Structure formats: C-alpha cells, structure tokens
Amino acid sequence: MQIDLRLKQKEHDYKVYINELERIELKGKVAIVTNPKVAGLHLKRLLDVLKCDDYFIVTVPDGEEYKNLTTVESILEQLFTSRLDRSSTLIAFGGGVISDMVGFVASIYQRGIKFINIPTTLLSQVDASVGGKTGVNNKFGKNLIGSFYQPEAVYCESKFLQTLAKREFSAGVAEAIKMAVTFDKEMFEWLENADLNDEKNLANLIYKAVGIKANVVMDDEKEKSVRAVLNYGHTFAHVIENQTNYKTYLHGEAVAIGINMANALALHLGLMSKEEVERVKRLLLKFDLPTSYKINDEELFCDAFFLDKKSENSKIKFILADGIGNAVIKDNISKSDVLKVLREFK
Ligand SMILES: NC(=O)c1ccc[n+]([C@@H]2O[C@H](COP(=O)([O-])OP(=O)(O)OC[C@H]3O[C@@H](n4cnc5c(N)ncnc54)[C@H](O)[C@@H]3O)[C@@H](O)[C@H]2O)c1
Ligand SMILES: [Zn+2]
Question: Is there an atom of ligand 1 within 6 Å of 35 CB?
C-alpha cells in the first residue's frame, strides 16, 4: 500500500510505503541513525534491503531524555567525521524520538540533506514519521527547537511492531484513535470491532491513520489551521505529562486521558452526547489505555495550559470533537467552564 503526499508550496512530493520495504536503492553515502535496542532487533532486516555505495551506522542512546541538542551535536560530528556531503542520505531507524531528531539534523547539516524515515514504533508509523515536524527538547519544554523538513520517503513495516512492548503499542493506538475521532467516523467504527493482532488489520490501521495525516499536512503543512486538530487531547496531555515529570505515562497514554478530558469539555458545551463520550472511552479502554487522572488543584492545572507553547496570545486553543468524526477549534471557552469540567476529575 502507498500514500502520496504532495506539498503545494514546496514542490516536494513523497510516498509513504506500507509493508513494501523490499529494496531501498540510494546513491552516495548513507548514514543510518538508530539506537542499540532497535539496531539489535531489526538492523539486519534493513541492511538486507539497502543498496548503496557506502553506509555507516550512528548509534544514539535510547530515550526521550536524549532528544536534545547534545545528541544532535554528536550525530553531526559523526556525519562530518565520515565526510557526508550534500548528495548523502540519512536514514532514521527507530521510534519518534529518532525520526524527530534525525529530521532536524538532516535539515541543518550543510543547510539540508535528504533523509528517509523508517519508523519502528506504532506511534511513529501512524503519526511522527509523516508530516515533516522535526525537533528536539530543551529545558524550556518539549519540541521547542526544530524545523519543518520533509523526508524523501517513509517506510512503515508492521513486522517491526512485533517486538514492541504492549504499552508502547497501545500508546500508538491512542494517536490513531485521535485521528478517527476528529476526522473519520468510519475508521472509529472499524476500530471498535477490529482485532489489531491480525497483520492485515494492523496494516489497515496504519494506512488509514497515515492517510488522514497526509491529507492534513497537504492542506496545512505549517499548522496555520487544520493541522492543529491533530493536537486533540494534547492540551490536557501536556499538562499531565508535565505534572508527572514525563515518568508515569507514555505520551500516547497521556493523550488517551487528554482525549477523555477534552470530551468531558465537549459534553459540557453540548458538542458531544454522553453516549458518544462513553463510546470513545470504551474504545480507549479496549486497548488498555488510561482514561482518568486525578487533578489535585484545578486552578493550577488550568494555569498550566498557558505555559503550553501552542497557546497563542494567551488564549487557550481547545480542539474538541463535535460528535465522533468531526472536530472544531475553540479559543473562546470561558475559564469557569474549563474549571467546572476539570473539577469532575478531582
Ligand atoms: N513529529 C511529529 O509529528 C511527532 C508526532 C508525534 C510524536 N512525536 C514525537 O515522537 C516521540 C515519541 O515517539 P515513540 O513513541 O516512537 O517513542 P520512542 O522513539 O522513544 O520509542 C519508544 C521505545 O520503543 C523502542 N522501540 C522502537 N522500535 C521498537 C521495536 N520495533 N521493538 C521494540 N522496541 C522498539 C525505543 O527504543 C524506545 O525505547 C516523542 O518525542 C514525540 O514528541 C513527533
Ligand atoms: Zn501526540
């Protein structure tokens, strides 16, 4: 299966291949950036299909805490030492941490070289590897340094996911549920009945989610409008991740809770029915995702929204489902409405 992504402004097209990793042929030097875990599990499979003049492996430590400028600097150094030039290609081989970081390095190495994403987590296959948002974290927050820089191609292989921890898998499903609730009621209904242990269903899920993401990115690469909808659940999730020091929940798990909180707000504003809120919650629970978080101080929680970089002009932008399969962006919700809903989670 393939999905074409055509960016209007840039004359840059690329394909996302789903379960079609049979041969990658590249000219010039290639640097594969990965981490020890992914390399140990799957590097051989990649090397079996890679045809190029010369390649070398750059290994970075595993973990979100290494998604920073220090690691970027160490990757750059290895690229210079190996004399990569502007005809070379980087391959990001790993989860979203690797693809975000490698995309960023590709965008700044000698003012930009080609890169290919080969995502190995469900979250990176359905979300992070497509769309060209790249970047790293710093002490002021997550993803605050970065660029919009698109890959040459993306290869999503569901086989790589067989070694993924169950929690990591579910975290990826949460991002796919996000897309279904905001854009695609049919996909939502399909997910309610689908068994994702079945390879075909899993490939279908990746296809549907990437299709949605590709359409959104083609419309709005730089998040001036509709791309913001992909932040559904995230306004809440970022506060939860921050309050729990990024330790208690995986990102996708925090998003699952955030989705449920956003829906509580949508219910309060009359955008969703109680049945619909319950239906989304049931789908999250089907994949063992968490749906609640104990808010100790709703004022503090609410204030934290303003620290999120996505809140512009001190207005909080909430992405809410207007029924399952539709989304609206609201920036005029009163603080008292928000507090009322947050109190339900005390
Ligand atoms: N650019 C975007 O549009 C975008 C969108 C969503 C998320 N992100 C970013 O993605 C990151 C999260 O990505 P993630 O959830 O993939 O996390 P991750 O990259 O940290 O991967 C999670 C864990 O799974 C391991 N792993 C990877 N592939 C594996 C496999 N096949 N088998 C077993 N283990 C494997 C990794 O080594 C890691 O320990 C965050 O930094 C987030 O900001 C970016
Ligand atoms: Zn996310």
Answer: yes
- List the residue whose alpha carbon is closest to atom 19 of ligand 1: 95
Instruction: Check the annotation: does 121 bind a ligand.
Output: yes
pLDDT over threshold 60, residue 54: yes
Among 111, 139, 224, 274, the active-site one is: 111
Tokens standing for 73?
A: 């600097």
Cβ of 100 less than 6 Å from ligand 1: yes
Question: Residue 65 Cα, ligand 1 centroid: separation in angstroms?
Answer: 12
Distance CA 147, CA 144 (A): 10
pLDDT digits (tens, 9 = 90+) for 110-154: 999 999 999 999 999 999 999 999 999 998 888 999 999 999 999
Residue 51 near residue 24 (C-beta atoms within 8 A)? yes
pLDDT tens digits, one per residue of 62-88: 999 999 999 999 999 999 999 999 999
Mean pLDDT, rounded, of the chain: 94
In angstroms, the CA 329 to CA 336 distance is 18
Cβ–Cβ < 8 Å for 188, 324:
yes
Atom of ligand 1 nearest to the CA of 130: 3
Whose structure tokens read 């499903």? Answer: 173
Residue 98 near residue 38, CB atoms below 8 Å: yes
Q: What is the pLDDT of residue 314?
A: 62
* Distance from C-alpha of 317 to C-alpha of 72, rounded to nearest angstrom: 31
Indicate whether 43 pLDDT > 60: yes
The answer to whether the CB of 179 is under 6 A from ligand 1 is no
Q: Is 163 in the pocket of ligand 1 (CB under 6 A)?
A: yes
pLDDT for res 22: 94
d(CA 39, CA 11): 34
Interval 312-346: pLDDT, tens: 556 788 999 999 999 999 988 988 999 999 999 98
Domains and CATH numbers, the chain: 2-163 (3.40.50.1970), 166-343 (1.20.1090.10)
